[in-house]
Amino acid sequence: MAASTEPPSLKPFTIALVQLGQVTSDKSKNLPHAREMILKAASREGGRKPDLIVLPECFNSPYGVMHFLLYAETIGFTSGQPYDIKTSQSETVKMLSGAAKETGIWLIGGSIPERDASDGSKLYNTCTVYSPQGELVTIHRKIHLFDIDIPGKITFKESETLTGGSTMNMFDTPFARIGLGICYDVRFPELAMIAARSGCQVIIYPAAFNMITGPLHWETLHRARAVDNQAFMSMCSPARDSVEGYQAYGHSMVVDPMQVSSLSHRLCSKESMNRRGTVLTQAGHLEEVVYADIDPATFHSARTGIPVTTQRRFDVYPDVSREARAVM
Ligand SMILES: NC(=O)CC(=O)C(=O)O
């Protein structure tokens, strides 16, 4: 979706990250389980109910290049055109839309393998987003495919079966403008930077790091994107419970833009630290739902205290986000 020029002002809201477990090779089990966990996340007790629920990358199929063709669904969404859920060919889209409507909560529906609707020749790794009325409001196709080779540790080549998306995507809610990406997209800072410069106060990526790259970079990349862009940054992972195949790292996380160093930890009172935590929430490695309350005061104090957003030197280097806006 092309976001309107003025973003909504950031309001307090609560995110629920559903770190889904039990993603099996049986889609007829994966979908009801994901639905059950969405309902569980929505019916939180002892805390603010979530305004937005997020699922992980590749939640209806095992994560592996040999599985994408078998599990792919045709979605057939075109930005700016009405989408009729009733006639959708995607059973996952129907389930997610129904769950968003039933809970009355915004839903970032993780990602699924998608078959191109035009001639079926291309497959994408695609995230779908739903309003509380169950409308499919936007999709994001993973732009940067996960092609890596760390000898003896991990080799993965999404490009063997997938095609990379070619649009940047964001959406507006009554409480924030939210920038989208999927997993490996986080390693390309331009995407989050362009989202932030286009008014996103929050950046959310369904993801599935693994046991090699997760310990190396998962938290660092959250912190880097949050500090660079002075925005809230979150990735939602599957749980690490698969007996074979891809082992997800877990540790779904929300990080705020006002990062407190270990030195400030010692200098700040406990009460002020509670208001300015770096990692607002973090899951373990098993299935669980974690919540984070987004406080606009943290966002505004980060941007006014260290005003990099108004100090850029576009007389010295170009503003790449200007040209990028045209393709959104
Ligand atoms: N799975 C991914 O797309 C990315 C990942 O695991 C990494 O960047 O590390």
UniProtKB/TrEMBL annotation:
Residue ranges of every copy of the CN hydrolase domain listed in the record: 13-296
Any Gene Ontology CC annotation: mitochondrion
Protein's UniProt keywords contain Cell inner membrane: no
Keywords: Hydrolase
One matching Pfam family: CN_hydrolase
Domain of life: Eukaryota
Protein name: Carbon-nitrogen hydrolase
Native species: Heliocybe sulcata
Lineage of the species this protein comes from: Eukaryota, Fungi, Dikarya, Basidiomycota, Agaricomycotina
